[in-house]
């Protein structure tokens, strides 16, 4: 059962940045429990439309109930990197007014032990956003090569003890299958010789395995590219990241698309002639101290906003 109510991070700043036309067509690519979507609907006119997307079957249940209550809203199950497919029959491809992505794992997913994301509650070692698709974390750890496990923990968790942790996982799985979250957390804890202050020693490894299992960075790269063609001129892209690798990817994508065509540096060319595909809107936004006090999980959030040139 959930132990903490889901609090939508950067709720008002995200919707403020996203909603430029109350009668427009918007996409909430990470519906979750509908926090952002409900505020978008509240601010939209009667002719506005909102499409929600999520992998999680529980999120889809919440979305179906919202769709029954509000004809302006529709929900589809899948990954946001299938954005082009999701939009194909909406009549809005290339005409989307705003796309919102709230990345990472949600509070309900963390708090429901049976989902397998938590290293402080015992549950089956799953970690899939959609438990009906792909390999679970337990299945992957049972067969992956030691070097592959080390690479994932180092690349996605930036954990300098990745090799020690991978070695310990392989050693333990030879004794008994690693099938529970607290079982894995203890293995990582014992293999980690230097604990970070105020951080559980399994944090980085769990985060890395989750990112790998759900192909989160690959999906993010794909959806950013697809957002360019999905947005109308003047349409907004709003992305909330919780991980430095995600934020770096988003930041670099916006920077690259804002530069436009690659002309020689000494060639006198105007900005408009460079044909930038995006314009950065404002600086990165972080939660207020008050929001962090109310919801400590918001502390690592970073929001970036870009607009497709008109």
Automatic annotation (TrEMBL):
UniProt keywords, alphabetically: Cytoplasm, Methyltransferase, rRNA processing, S-adenosyl-L-methionine, Transferase
InterPro entries in alphabetical order: RsmH, SAM-dep_MeTrfase_MraW_recog, SAM-dependent_MTases_sf
Keyword Methyltransferase assigned: yes
An individual GO BP term: rRNA base methylation
Pfam families xrefs: Methyltransf_5 (PF01795)
Annotated Gene Ontology cellular component terms: cytoplasm
Disordered: region residues: 289-310
GO molecular function terms listed in the Swiss-Prot or TrEMBL record: rRNA (cytosine-N4-)-methyltransferase activity
Family, similarity comment: Belongs to the methyltransferase superfamily. RsmH family.
Protein name: Uncharacterized protein
Organism for this UniProt entry: marine sediment metagenome
């Amino acid at each position: 059962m959930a132990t903490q109510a889901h609090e939508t991070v950067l709720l008002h700043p995200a919707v403020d940045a996203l909603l430029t036309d109350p009668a427009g067509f918007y996409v909430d690519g990470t519906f979750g429990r509908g926090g952002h979507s409900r505020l978008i609907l509240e601010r939209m006119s009667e002719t506005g439309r909102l499409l929600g997307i999520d992998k999680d079957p529980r999120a889809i249940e919440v979305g179906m109930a919202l769709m029954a209550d509000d004809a302006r809203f529709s929900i589809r199950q899948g990954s946001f990197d299938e954005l082009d497919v999701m939009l194909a029959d909406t009549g809005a491809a290339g005409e989307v007014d705003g796309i919102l992505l709230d990345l990472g794992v949600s509070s309900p997913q963390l708090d429901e032990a049976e989902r397998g994301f938590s290293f402080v509650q015992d549950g089956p070692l799953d970690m899939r956003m959609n438990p009906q698709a792909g390999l679970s974390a337990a299945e992957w750890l049972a067969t992956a090569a030691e070097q592959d496990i080390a690479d994932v923990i180092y690349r996605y968790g930036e954990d300098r003890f990745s090799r020690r942790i991978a070695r310990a996982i392989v050693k333990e799985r030879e004794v008994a299958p690693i099938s529970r979250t607290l079982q894995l957390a203890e293995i990582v804890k014992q293999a980690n010789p230097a604990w970070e202050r105020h951080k559980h020693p399994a944090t980085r490894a769990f985060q890395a395995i989750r990112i790998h299992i759900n192909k989160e960075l690959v999906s993010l790269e794909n959806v950013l590219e697809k957002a360019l063609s999905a947005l109308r001129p003047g349409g907004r892209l709003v992305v909330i990241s919780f991980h430095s690798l995600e934020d770096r990817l988003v930041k670099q994508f916006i920077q690259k698309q804002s530069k436009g065509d690659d002309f020689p540096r000494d060639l006198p060319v105007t900005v408009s002639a460079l044909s930038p595909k995006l314009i950065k809107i404002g600086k990165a936004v972080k939660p207020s101290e008050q929001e962090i006090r109310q919801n400590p999980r918001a502390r690592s959030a970073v929001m970036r906003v870009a607009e497709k040139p008109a």
